[in-house]
Amino acid sequence: SRGAGFCSLTMSGGVRHSVLETYFAPLGNRPNLAVRVNALVESVVMDATRAVGVRLAGGECIEARGVVLCAGALATPVLLRRSGIDRPGIGTGLQDHPSIAITLALQRRQHSAIRIGANVRMSSQKGNADIHVLSLNETDESGMFGALIAGVMRVHSRGEVKYDSITGTGIAMFNQLSDERDKEAMRDVVRFTYALASSQSVSSIAGSLLSDANGTSAQWIGDATDSEIDDWALRQVGAYSHAACSCAMGNSRDDMAVVNERAEVIDYQDLWLCDASILPTLPRANTHLPVVMVANRVSEMLLETLNESR
């Protein structure tokens, strides 16, 4: 199955809007809300197993009735480890949508203002709606090069955010295409994207197709073997910037779960996570709206919990 259509975007007046603009701007000035910008958090301050505030990089401590970490799937595991939070699952299970690109050398200068305007969704031979192909949605500064970008949306490969206790930093290791099922789907991605790039419609605006940053012609893809595509995809694979699943939600009795069904860090008090890190499995879609849904639900549960503890 396959289909194409415009993307649903958070836009107003033709301009993309961030979560900050959408949710914070309408709040106005509230006496019970203080927003600290450029305040780098070093760690969560713990009293035994209870979160009681945060420590900033400059040494300042901010006391709190509770702490909600929303640093994202790459930074949240690091902050937890740096704060002495000990759960085996912290940092494990990291996922992102693996993607490849076929570069179009354009016949005429083009400029695109919207990064993602439309996409094609199709199914691999063994999957269902597990492939995205993004339209020519962005050009380089010269306006003479663009790309068709495609990704595997049903992901099985997993990596980790590896924590270095000496430096207090983390290294993201995605291990993309390490699962054979992802490799099989990526072969379909590459072949379909090349066929689309070779179509009459795309050929009318693109003088040639390139398969890497060195300017190598992409014509070889037309007759490529599975092994050749695998090798190329492993060299060229990129991320969709949809990092997730590094502090997964799960049953409190599961040692590898980091938060319970209420987004509370298991075995700790007054400490919640609210970002893509708590997703158990990467959704077959962009992560923005799923994370907004998670945030809405977690905020409701957080309000209930804080009201009950007064």
Describe the structure.
- The chain has 310 residues and is of the alpha+beta class.
- It has 2 domains: 36-93 and 243-308, 3-Layer(bba) Sandwich (FAD/NAD(P)-binding domain); 97-162 and 170-239, Cholesterol Oxidase, domain 2.
- Helix content is 23%, strand content 25%.
- It contains 6 helices and 17 strands.
- The radius of gyration is 22 Å and the shape is globular.
- It starts with a strand and ends with a helix.
Low-confidence stretches: none
Can you write the helix and strand succession as a string? EEEHEEEEHEEEEEEEHHEHEEH
Number of domains: 2
CATH secondary-structure class of the largest domain: Alpha Beta
Distance between the termini: 53 Å
CATH topology of the largest domain: Cholesterol Oxidase, domain 2
Broad shape = globular
- Evaluate the radius of gyration: 22 Å
Question: What characterizes the major β-sheet?
Answer: 7 strands, antiparallel
Query: Roughly how much helix do the residues carry, as a percent range?
Result: 10-25%
How does CATH name the architecture of the largest domain?
Answer: 2-Layer Sandwich
Kindly state the number of beta strands: 17
Structural class: alpha+beta
In DSSP terms (H or I, runs of 4 or more residues), the helix count works out at 6
Q: What is the typical, i.e. mean, pLDDT?
A: 91
Please state roughly what percent of the residues sit in beta strands, choosing from under 5%, 5-15%, 15-25%, 25-35%, 35-45% or over 45%.
25-35%
